[in-house]
């Protein structure tokens, strides 16, 4: 009787351990990755940063960032699950686990690295000053004390703070550029590709000093090492097989996914 009871206890214990292991595996997501939804790559973007992400009348996003995110998801064997969110709050959403990642043209910088990890860069760009055609501004020093508009949560506000305290924040870089073209503010600092696209769309603005180069990458929660590794592997494959180049040329007519010499 004692032997039977002992065997029963052992069997119950083993079943419990197996169940616990199964629960842990599910909690950690697919293949060790922590995912907001099983089988899906849930990524956030603003939908207000044409041509990187733009929202149609039905609320669906498209653009360079979106195509990259969907290609990464496919390479990882996951279903892409896009979420539109205000740019200034996206990093916090990734940090809290609301999203698996941000594919939203985030520049890698020290402040953001305190809260999230970044993948290898998927494109390279840089900030530029944009003004109206009648402006005398040529470089950053010329904006001393003037009014500069930037997007909320971007890295451009810090650049503007070097020369002025008069900074206006917008939810979207495109909206800021439209306001500039309509006579508001003295300048906008934004990504040079965004400004180039706005000019091509007919906005009467001009690009002036280019304020350096930046690396844009996918943001992932700091405790999700497995997902970061898989995203990096996917980006490397997409870079090697030409997919990133193809997506870039689709939207910009050139390859912005290669690091400048």
Summed over residues and divided by their number, the pLDDT gives a mean of 89
Cα gyration radius (Å)? 23 Å
User: Care to count the β-strands?
Assistant: 14
The profile of the biggest β sheet is: 6 strands, mixed
Shape: globular
Task: Quickly count the helices.
Answer: 9
Query: How much of the sequence is in beta strands?
Result: 15-25%
Percentage of residues in helical conformation: 25-40%
Distance N to C terminus: 79 Å
Low-pLDDT sequence parts: 1-29
Give the helices and strands as they follow along the chain: HEEEEHEHEHEEEEHEHEHEEHH
Q: What would you call the structural class?
A: alpha/beta
Q: How would you describe this protein?
A:
- The protein has 261 residues and is an alpha/beta fold.
- It contains nine helices and 14 strands.
- The chain has helices spanning 2-27, 64-76, 87-95, 110-113, 156-161, 173-181, 192-200, 225-240, 243-252, and strands at residues 40-45, 48-49, 53-55, 61-62, 79-84, 101-107, 116-118, 123-125, 127-131, 148-151, 167-170, 187-191, 206-210, 214-221.
- Strands 1, 5, 6, 7, 8 and 14 form a six-stranded mixed beta sheet that branches.
- Strand 10 (148-151), helix 5 and strand 11 (167-170) form a beta-alpha-beta unit.
- Helix 2 (64-76) crosses helix 8.
- It is globular, with a radius of gyration of 23 Å.
- 39% of the residues are buried.
């Amino acid at each position: 009787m004692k032997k039977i009871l002992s065997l029963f206890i052992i069997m119950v214990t083993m079943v419990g351990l197996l169940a616990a292991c199964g629960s842990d595996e599910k909690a950690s997501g697919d293949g060790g990755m922590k995912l907001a939804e099983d089988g899906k790559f849930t990524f956030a973007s603003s939908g207000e940063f044409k041509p990187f992400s733009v929202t149609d009348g039905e609320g669906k996003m498209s653009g360079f960032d979106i195509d990259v995110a969907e290609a990464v998801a496919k390479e990882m064997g996951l279903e892409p699950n896009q979420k539109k969110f205000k740019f200034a709050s996206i990093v916090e959403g990734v940090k809290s686990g609301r999203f698996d990642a941000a594919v939203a043209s985030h520049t890698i910088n020290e402040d953001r690295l305190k809260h999230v990890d970044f993948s290898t860069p998927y494109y390279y760009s840089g900030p530029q000053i944009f003004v109206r055609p009648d402006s005398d501004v040529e470089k950053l020093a010329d904006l001393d004390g003037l009014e500069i508009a930037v997007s909320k949560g971007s890295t451009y506000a810090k650049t503007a703070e070097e020369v002025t305290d008069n900074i206006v924040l917008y939810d979207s870089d495109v909206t800021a550029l439209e306001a500039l073209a309509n006579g508001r503010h003295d300048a906008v600092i934004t990504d040079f590709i965004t400004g180039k696209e706005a000019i091509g769309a007919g906005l009467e603005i001009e690009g002036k000093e280019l304020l350096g180069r930046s690396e844009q990458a996918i943001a992932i929660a700091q405790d999700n090492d497995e997902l970061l590794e898989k995203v990096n592997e996917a980006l490397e494959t997409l870079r090697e097989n030409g997919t990133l180049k193809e997506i870039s040329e689709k939207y910009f007519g050139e390859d912005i996914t290669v690091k400048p010499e």
